[in-house]
Write a structure and sequence with these properties.
Number of helices: 9
Largest sheet: 5 strands, mixed
Radius of gyration: 27 Å
Order of helices and strands: HHHHHEEEHHEEEEHH
Strand order of the largest sheet: 3-2-1-6-7
Number of domains: 3
Distance between the termini: 79 Å
Helix content: 40-55%
Structural class: alpha/beta
Length: about 290
Amino acid sequence: MNFSQTPIPEYFTYFHQRRDACGLLGFTIIQKVTSAIRQLAYAATAVLFDEYLHTGEQTAYDCLNKFCKCIFHLYATEYLRKPTAQDVQRSTTKHAQIHRFPGMLGSINCMHWRWRNCPARWKGHYTRGDHGYTSIMLEAVASYDGWFWHAFFGTAGSNNDINVLNQSDLFNDFLAGEAPPCTFTVNGCTFDKGYYLADGIYPEWSTLVKSFRNPIDPKQSKFKNSSCRFIDWYDPPMCARSVAIIPGLLEAINRAEAGMNAAKTEVKIYKWLLVVVCVWFALSKFGN
């Protein structure tokens, strides 16, 4: 963003390194940004990083507050917003041209996002028995151009797509009559609200259209074949450079993981040897 013609907001200049009343340099931008990101990533309190970053509680709160304001200032107008009437028209037109589905707003689905750094006190809330690890359910709506128009996550408990859908705010605008207009005609019938493409677990709502798992007639087969092509944007053909470098990156990751596993095994062996030596020493010294 260009601030050459306008005054720089205070929450941007806050991250500049400044001198205090004694002339000593204060916290660097790395310390302040790290404090904010760690609070967001670990859902931790401000005092948790006072020893690591040497920042006070109030300073950590200020870093988080200013950092969020900077993100909102930079990205709110383009990314942190709901689709407008023009966005809806563009998406539905594109879907009608490519998939022959007029009025389709996008695709909705949920996924389990593994939460490796989940705090120990929350692991019981975010662990499903069939998965065996902590994860967050992420509900997202995406259009053909890869634009995510809706994201909802953070629901605790053992959930599936239906539980998350019932708690999200996806259809709040529809219920309040504030959703952007989306008018289309199918078989001579005119509809004034769009719909989302979903899989079989979702409920039978007029705003959700699902494919057929086992099509039994030509109409269902055509619908299934057409709808399956909707996810083509998600896995486009890779460029030549990606084809060349990705195998090397995967091999490097595999070597690193193998080295880490070997190191862990070696550490376990040394621990057992240490225990055996300690037991032998105790028996030889105090056994008599």
